[in-house]
Write a structure and sequence with these properties.
The complex is a heterodimer of chains A (112) and B (114).
Chain A: E1 4-7, E2 10-13, E3 19-25, E4 31-38, E5 42-51, E6 54-57, E7 64-66, E8 76-78, E9 87-94, E10 102-103, E11 107-111
Parallel strand pairs in A: 2-11
Antiparallel strand pairs in A: 1-3, 3-8, 4-5, 4-9, 5-6, 7-8, 9-10, 9-11
Chain B: E1 3-6, E2 10-14, E3 19-21, E4 23-26, E5 31-38, E6 44-50, E7 56-58, E8 64-68, E9 73-78, E10 87-95, E11 103-104, E12 108-113
Parallel strand pairs in B: 2-12
Antiparallel strand pairs in B: 1-4, 3-9, 5-6, 5-10, 7-8, 8-9, 10-11, 10-12
The chains are: A mainly beta (112), B mainly beta (114).
Chain lengths: 112, 114
């Protein structure tokens, strides 16, 4: 079982560059989300999706875009990277109702 | 707004010591509660969860947690820790019946010395 797959695992960007973090799940989950993890702050929700074609903002959406064209994929786009976006990013998926979330392995992003 | 507070940011224990990590949440409605663990360099894994029923929940690796509704608490316990329990522990909540928007606490970093 692949579960939730994130790519890349590591990335270094220069300020102003753009990139897309990929996330795919093979569990037919309707709900997918992106979090960023920063020391002492836990995980904070960036964007989430409750199904293909439906996305919404989380707690810290500025500087990030998402789209959900299929159930399986939920990419996160950084349009113009800033040093404040240096973080570890986790993608998660879950089914409807009272279920647990499954997390990907994370992407460690450094913006210089 | 929902929030989760974890009382201890860093805990250092010797092997065989008992562990209790505090977690309190703030939310006006009914919630589901979770504890996740993150071992060094790895992703988050579910330790245990509470949806309904018996407020004492048992999870993997000998962990348990007790939901006390009147105190809005969901503390994590383990009677005897091992070196392999060294990790960061996150408490999380989401609104029951709603979309699975997890709200996390800041985390507690546990170091267990042999």
């Amino acid at each position: 079982n692949a579960g939730v797959t994130q790519t890349p695992k590591f990335q270094v960007l220069k300020t102003g560059q753009s990139m897309t973090l990929q996330c795919a799940q093979d569990m037919n989950h309707e709900y997918m989300s992106w979090y960023r993890q920063d020391p002492g702050m836990g995980l904070r929700l960036i964007h989430y999706s409750v199904g293909a074609g439906i996305t919404d903002q989380g707690e810290v959406p500025n500087g990030y875009n998402v789209s959900r064209s299929t159930t399986e994929d939920f990419p996160l786009r950084l349009l113009s990277a800033a040093p404040s976006q240096t973080s570890v990013y986790f993608c998660a998926s879950s089914g409807q109702g009272n279920t647990e979330a499954f997390f990907g392995q994370g992407t460690r992003l450094t913006v210089v | 707004a929902q929030s989760v507070s974890q009382h201890n940011h860093h805990v250092i224990l010797s092997e065989a010591a008992s562990l209790e990590l505090g977690c309190n949440y703030s939310y006006g409605g009914t919630v589901n509660l979770f504890w996740y663990v993150q071992y060094p360099g790895q992703h988050l894994q579910l330790l245990l969860k509470y949806f309904s029923g018996d407020p004492l929940v048992k999870g993997i690796k000998g962990f348990e947690a007790e939901f006390i509704k009147s105190k809005f608490s969901f503390n994590l316990r383990k009677p005897s820790v091992q070196w392999s329990d060294t990790a960061e522990y996150f408490c999380a909540v989401n609104a029951k019946g709603g979309y699975n928007k997890l709200i996390f606490g800041a985390g507690t970093r546990l170091a267990v010395h042999p």
